[in-house]
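Deliverable D2.4 — example input (structure tokens):
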């Protein structure tokens, strides 16, 4: 009986050792030179789910602002803004995205805003003036590997 427990223990030890080999994505983490204990990685972990991205609204929006759209996803997407957006002097798009490609917001084939994604820690803001609000269907274009969160607001009094 002790032999089988020992075999199970050795198998688990071999599994742990195999997982910490050089092919593991965090194998290049910095290690403490004097203690031999690995330091926590200094790089931000890239989220793999849109719900784990930070909220694109980093500061409070002005009192009386109207949220037109809040959503998240991956790859391409779209939103139909309410008619009030077409009458507003401007709307503001705030987004965050993670992935190795760009995230663009377009309307009627015209680029309204965009950014290069990264580890998901960046938050982007674009004020879209009334002159660009002719089309109320906005498209989000990105590769399927890109995850995103978007909030679109309309300022007060519009």
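Example output (designed residues):
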């Amino acid at each position: 009986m002790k032999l089988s427990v020992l075999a199970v223990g050795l198998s688990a030890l071999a599994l742990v050792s195999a997982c910490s080999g050089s092919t593991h994505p965090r194998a290049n983490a910095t290690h403490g030179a004097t203690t031999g204990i690995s330091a926590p990685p200094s790089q931000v972990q890239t989220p793999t789910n849109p719900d784990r991205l930070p909220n694109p609204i980093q500061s409070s929006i002005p009192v009386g602002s109207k949220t037109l759209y809040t959503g998240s996803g991956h790859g391409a997407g779209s939103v139909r803004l309410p008619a009030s957006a077409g009458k507003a002097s401007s709307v503001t798009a705030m987004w965050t995205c993670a992935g190795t490609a760009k995230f663009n917001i377009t309307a009627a084939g015209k680029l309204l805003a965009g950014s290069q994604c990264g580890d998901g820690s960046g938050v982007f803001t674009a004020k879209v003036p009334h002159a660009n609000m002719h089309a109320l269907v906005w498209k989000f274009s990105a590769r399927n590997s890109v995850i995103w969160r978007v909030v679109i607001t309309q300022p007060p009094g519009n």
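Helices lie at 2-19, 83-87.
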